[in-house]
Every structure is written in structure tokens, then in C-alpha cells.
């Protein structure tokens, strides 16, 4: 069972930055692709960013491309989401997720992720 714990959320003004972290308990973390998703009130969960097992391949939603950066430290079993130039529309609960298996291949589809954290709130004020 993979356990994921997010941290780093909070309240920030538009234009500001936050760095989310997601710590994994799984010893196979370094073999798994990881993703970040978010869900705003009244909206469906949406893909934000994903990273393959090595960190050499990343993919982003168009809405965050150029502003957000996903990275990972396999020695620390942690994946990060650096968020810059934040906008009010980035306000949401952010979830990290680990893929179902250990393919290590990046995916934008939530159904490919079997393990989810509890979420961390990000609020961007205008």
C-alpha cells in the first residue's frame, strides 16, 4: 500500500509562488510515475502535471505550462510542484498521485493512478 502525504499549500496573493511536496511511503517510489491533480469547488478533478520514474520526462496541462514545474527526488521519496505566477483560477485542492503499477511511464489520465494523497488547499487571492 502506497501512502502519500502532501504539504506546502496555503494562501498566496496573485503573482506569488508556492511549492507543494508529496512524500511517499513506498519503497518502489523510484519506479513509479507520479502526478499532480487539482479540484476546484464545483468542478471536476483535473490533471496538472506528471513526471516519469527518472524525472526525465514531464508533461503539463496547458493552463499551467510555463508557470508550474514538477520534479522529484527519488532518494527522498518525494515529488514536488513548484508553482509560480499563481492566478486566482489556480485555487483548488491539490492532490498528488502514484501510478497503479511500476511502469514509470508518465500519464495525464487519473485512471492510471491508484494511490492518492489527502490533498492540500491552495488559495490564490486577487
Give the helices and strands, then pairings.
Layout: E1 4-7, E2 10-13, E3 18-24, E4 34-39, E5 46-51, E6 58-60, E7 68-73, E8 78-83, E9 92-99, E10 113-116, E11 120-125
Parallel strand pairs: 2-11
Antiparallel strand pairs: 1-3, 3-8, 4-5, 4-9, 5-6, 7-8, 9-10, 9-11
Could you describe the 3D structure shown?
By secondary structure, the protein is mainly beta. It has no helices and eleven strands.
Order of helices and strands: EEEEEEEEEEE
What's the β-strand tally? 11
The description of the largest β-sheet is: 7 strands, mixed
Q: Find the structural class using helix and strand composition.
A: mainly beta
Shape from CA axes? Answer: globular
Helicity range of the residues? under 10%
Tally of helical segments: 0
Percent range for β-strand residues: over 45%
The residue ranges in which pLDDT falls below 50 over 5 or more consecutive positions are: none
- Radius of gyration computed on alpha carbons: 13 Å
What separation lies between the terminal Cα atoms?
40 Å
